[in-house]
Amino acid sequence: MILRSLLLFAASGLADIILPVYNGPPRLKYSVVPGYFKQSDLATDDRTYDALSDSFGLTDPSPHRWYRFRQNIYALNMGAPQGVRYVVLYLARHGQGQHNVAEKFFGQEAWECYWAMQGTNGTCTWGPDAKLSPQGHSEVARTSKAWKHEVPYGIPLPESHHVSPLSRSLSTLVETWKPIALNPPLPVCNELLRETLSLHYGDKRSKASYLRETYPEVEFPIEEEDPLWNFHRESEIGRNMRIKHVLDEILSNDPSIYIGMTSHSGVINSTLVALGHRPYVLQTAGVLPVVVKVERDPGWRGEVLWGKKESWEVPKVELRSVCPGYEPVLVSGQYVDGMGVWPYS
Hints:
By secondary structure, the protein is α/β, with parallel strands linked by helices. It has helices at 2-11, 65-78, 98-106, 108-113, 134-150, 167-177, 208-214, 236-253, 265-275; strands spanning 28-32, 84-93, 160-163, 188-189, 258-263, 287-296, 318-320, 329-331, 334-336, 339-341. The chain has one domain: 3-Layer(aba) Sandwich (Rossmann fold), CATH 3.40.50.1240. Helix 8 packs across helix 9. It is globular. Mean pLDDT is 87; it is low at 1-21 and 337-345. It comes from Tuber aestivum.
């Protein structure tokens, strides 16, 4: 049957057509639908507002708030034109990690100039693959409790989960949702949903075999070794491009309306840029819901805006001092006053 189809295809003359090279998922355009969550309002102070104690920021305070919300999202999708849909993203940040504790202890300058490229100071260990701190586990328990509190009011739970490959995010996902619901399909680990690419040792992920054994609730379509850690320091623009790429990939292939994404502050910041959302600093173990209009980008011509660098493009890793007065550390790319960036990422 397959051979016959190929012969018919060739006989029709269509075999002369050159098929386009696959350049990744179709580019999508995003816009935030305002009015549903307080965090989208510029009047909400992200330094003081606690959404976990306020129905995740939902503007409707009524007892039937989440049922009304579901109806509104359903109505938006029913009335959407061809090529447009509406989704709700639950952007979750991991709980406090050991690397967060270390950075606070050493201070940002000493952290960026030296300690981030280490894994321990002999007392505290934050690398490789920084784990949740005791406070981080407590923060995640509070987040899980906040979800449970809203269930009787009809909150729509995520229909799918996408998660960073780093342990602090994986632990946050499992500890948040295992007491509530982690139904099939399994949460999917996405290699690109990780913090800013760099040589920070706390951002070097564990081997895939260890992660599969430690988090059996999650699916891991990833390589055994971390392919991205021994890399240049990614610029903010580069990270924005990477996260836009992975967001397009997820929303091109995941038909869910309510989607959970558990990751890091940098990933969330870049996601908000891609969505056109106001800047919002999310506390550790916080959750930021966003109603998003998703539509095909008619201006997209198949160009690739982000891709993993080839080995010959990656700056050599070498031992050198990145800040005056600090001991040499293993770094690559351009490091200026401790804040290293590779401007073409």
